[in-house]
């Protein structure tokens, strides 16, 4: 995740990373303040209110992308988009966009 040079440095020097360094190295995606539980709950609620099936498909494809060639990955993405377009959440997203309101996804 950090690249070969940084990994070498971390292994050879065996030093602890500060939180800001972990963020800069891409080992963490954000830093939390003292209100860690509140921030975690807010993030969880945000993700849970989103199009969870589409999120799952994105995560699956990202993991696959390291092992899959481009033609297979494009095909998997195409199939995922088609499958997602058939969900109630997709219809809700389109309807909400047209109505200029926030979508109410239900994971269906």
Structure explained in plain terms:
By secondary structure, the chain is mainly α. The chain contains six helices and no strands. It has helices spanning 4-13, 19-25, 36-48, 52-64, 70-85, 88-99. Helix 4 (52-64) packs antiparallel against helix 5 (70-85).
Beginning-to-end CA distance, first to last residue: 33 Å
Instruction: Say what oligomer this is.
Output: single chain
Q: By helix and strand content, what is the structural category?
A: mainly alpha
**String of helices and strands:** HHHHHH
Biggest sheet record: none
Please give the share of residues in helix.
55-70%
The number of distinct β-strands equals 0
Ranges with pLDDT <50 over ≥5 residues? Answer: none
Shape label? flat
In terms of DSSP E residues, the strand content is under 5%
What is the gyration radius calculated from CA atoms?
19 Å
Average pLDDT rating? 90
Per-chain topology:
Layout: H1 4-13, H2 19-25, H3 36-48, H4 52-64, H5 70-85, H6 88-99
Helix pairs in contact: 4-5
What's this, in brief?
The chain is mainly α and 108 residues long.
Task: Please supply descriptive tags for the structure shown above.
single chain, 108 residues, mainly alpha, 6 helices, 66% helix, flat
């Amino acid at each position: 995740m950090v690249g070969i040079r940084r990994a070498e440095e971390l292994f050879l020097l065996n030093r602890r990373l500060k939180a800001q360094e972990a963020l800069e190295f891409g080992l963490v995606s954000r830093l939390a303040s003292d209100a860690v539980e509140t921030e975690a709950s807010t993030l969880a609620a945000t993700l849970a209110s989103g199009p969870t099936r589409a999120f799952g498909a994105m995560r699956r494809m990202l993991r696959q992308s390291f092992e899959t060639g481009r033609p297979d990955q494009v095909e998997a993405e195409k199939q995922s988009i088609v499958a997602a377009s058939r969900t109630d959440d997709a219809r809700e997203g389109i309807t909400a966009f047209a109505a200029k309101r926030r979508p109410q996804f239900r994971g269906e």
